[in-house]
Amino acid sequence: MTPSVVRRIANVPASEPDRMTDDGRSMNDWYRQLGVSHRRRDEAAGDESRALQERDRERETAMRRRWAGIVAAMRALAGCYNEGAGLDMLTVVDDAGGESRDLIVTTVARGGQTLTMTLIGAELCVRPSPGTAGSPDDGRRWITFEASDEATAAHALQPWLAQL
Description:
By secondary structure, the protein is of the alpha+beta class. It has a domain at about 60-164. Helix content is about 50%, strand content about 20%. A five-stranded antiparallel β-sheet has the order 1-2-3-4-5, covered by helices on one side. A hairpin with a 2-residue loop joins strand 3 (about 115-120) and strand 4 (about 125-130).
């Protein structure tokens, strides 16, 4: 904003010399310092936003690297369940091999019930069928990957298996 615009906004005639603030600074200095302060604030916010985005990318990359281990742990747990049941009750289908960037694994029970697990960012979204997507009672849960691959797989599968 030019000094003449500032003067018009403040109803100060353009011919009048620069006004002084209460602390002895010129009005122009005050606006300049305010601009500097806002620029620094915006730069700091941008730096923080970039740091958060980078952290999220790193976490997602780490989770993508762990995906095969989590799926293997799910297969092992399904195998243990099948062994205990005496027949193949569960099938684990890893849909991550397709062209999609999404990492999805589905556990299918013999009766047709499914448990779909999708990697979204750095979290695992776990949703049983026949939930209606987006409804408040669709059974969706979010799991973070702070535990081991085996513990993450168990945490995803256990509630669903207990209800079969």
